[in-house]
Write a structure and sequence with these properties.
Structural class: mainly beta
CATH architecture of the domain at 39-90 and 103-137: Sandwich
Helix content: 10-25%
Order of helices and strands: HEEEEEEEE
Radius of gyration: 25 Å
Shape: flat
CATH class of the domain at 39-90 and 103-137: Mainly Beta
Strand content: 25-35%
Strand order of the largest sheet: 1-6-5-4
Length: about 150
């Protein structure tokens, strides 16, 4: 037997609102994420930036990326890291039923404003075990100087 349901126009609006909230909540506008599910775009690059007494250090995980495919540039106080990963064709085995196969490939790009001036001619880049590490020496005038206090008396 069918059930009689009273029409409520606001119920449909609630469903639309919930749908829109889920749409905008799915990493669409969160920094650091590319468009999920699109082939050929892995989005922006995650990185760590920290400071020592003499250097700024940037560490970026680049597992599966060839160092030859990474381009690093510094213009003023802006560090830019660009690169790409090649699509890897894998042997597909017949008989397997995949529910999910995630391989990211394509290009990535990250530009970050550095918090202090650096000596761009002395920057060192090391790529080891899938981690890119940039060591950027601070300009001499930016380094903290300790001032000694002389007490009289």
């Amino acid at each position: 037997m069918s059930e009689l349901v009273r029409f409520d126009p606001f119920r449909e609006m609630t469903t639309l609102r919930d749908t829109m909230e889920r749409f905008f909540d799915r990493n669409l506008f969160r920094p650091g994420n590319g468009w999920p599910g699109l082939e050929g775009d892995i989005g922006t690059l995650a990185l760590d930036l920290y400071e020592t007494d003499d250097n700024l250090i940037v560490e970026a995980p680049l597992a599966g990326v060839n160092p030859e495919d990474v381009e690093i540039s510094i213009s003023g106080n802006v560090l830019t890291i660009k690169g790409k990963t090649e699509k890897v064709e894998e042997k597909k085995e017949n008989g397997n039923k995949y529910y999910c196969r995630e391989r990211r490939y394509g290009s990535f790009h990250r530009a970050i404003t550095l918090p202090t001036d650096i000596d761009a001619d002395q920057v060192k880049a090391v790529f080891e075990n899938g981690l890119l590490k940039l060591t950027m020496p601070k300009v001499e005038t930016v380094k903290p100087k300790r001032i000694e206090i002389k007490a009289k008396g």
